[in-house]
Amino acid sequence: MKKYYITTAIAYTSSKPHIGNTYEIVLADAIARYKRLDGYDVYFQTGTDEHGQKIEEKARLAGLEPQEYVDGIAEQIKTIWDLMNTSYDQFVRTTDKEHERKVQEIFKILYEKNDIYKGEYQGLYCTPCESFWTESQLIEGKCPDCGREVSIASEEAYFFRISKYSKWLEEYIESHPHFIEPVARKNEIMNNFIKPGLQDLCVSRTSFKWGVPVSFDEKHVVYVWIDALSNYITFLGYEPNSESSEAFKKYWPCDIHLIGKDILRFHTIYWPILLHALDIELPHQIFGHPWLLFGDDKMSKSKGNIVYADDLVEKYGTDAVRFYMIHEMPFSSDGTFTNNLLIETINSNLANILGNLVNRTIGMAEKYFDGVITNEEEYEPVDEEFIKLVMDTKSKVDENMDKLHVADALDNVFDIFRRANKYIDETSPWILAKDENKQKRLATVLYNLMEAIRFGSVLLQAFLPETSEKIFKQINTQATEFNTLDRFGYYESGTKTNEKEVLFERIEDK
Length: 510
Description:
Structural class: alpha/beta
Oligomer: single chain
């Protein structure tokens, strides 16, 4: 089996994740599930980033020790990831002792290679982002990432000599056009950061203690980004000073790091340079996904527009929330969340198009044939175009998933369900049922509908796994693997459907 290694960014344990944070894990899960269904040996890693000054301050304000504080937030994050039915293979935490040991060894190796050196840093520091900025990088005098105030900070620090690798990185990105996606993100990184020239990066702090101690200078802790970014290799079994694990040899390099566009700089500049300095092959691709906004605004507690996934799931169900997150997010521009849009999406796509189709088809099978579906193969010209659309869908979904156009891929699947509803109108089973001479034709129409539903539901598993399982149960089929998509007709003739149930209730918007 061909391997596929996908990661999300690890979630920062400063607070409970909102739906904008949750979008990333759901998107990654859809990709991971699809690859597994398509025959890949997938390793999917996610987890939490648990060190830094911001967390030390949050813990102090909460009256807790930092470890106790991050334990609580990490559990909240994992609970939400599980609630969203995400199929990660490993949930990692950067307070893991083995990870901390490896981070210390990585830091020391870079120091001994003279890629890390001691100096003093004075600059404009954003505590929430744990980032130093130059005056020219600020936007209206504030942090360009989060928009908050910055303060002048000065302290002894170790620096990572990334300026040494600036030309190498520029040439690497230019010669690997798909390394950073989408292309707008690549242009942003190249034009705003790399081409003007990289400045050496502050990689240790002395003004707080909640971090991985520098092994040879313990008044310093390792700056959060070397600690956090290294998770992608440390938890896979990378060993800085000895032979790495079989898992690392098997799955590295990573096929895709799926991250928010706000942390693109760290993953496309610091991470590749760190790997290159360690003589480790670079990941194949870094994809900076857009934000999920609340209306027109980025979600923030100060604006009071935070929405949490667990609250939405309690009201609407996991798959309804998954569908909205996947379907309503464009490839490269920000998406929008409002309760009205969510309800409209559930009603129009899930209740009307999919739920109604399954309910009508099983209902007609029960009414006309006691639920028994047989393929009498009495075809008419209208069937040919319908079956062709169904059969062409897998390749369309493959193409869009390969390009990470996940919303478009999900829409391709729903094209089957939309077309099946139209096919019902075209064939009018209720009219066929009144003619004794049309019973074989009626049976063929219902068979074609049932096979189209099965076909679409096999593809739907990557996006709405619970819903797919419910459909398979209702139509009573075991033909759920991707290898049953190579022809139209895997739904076994003579199958009796099970009792129908409503997949998605229409919601009255109050």
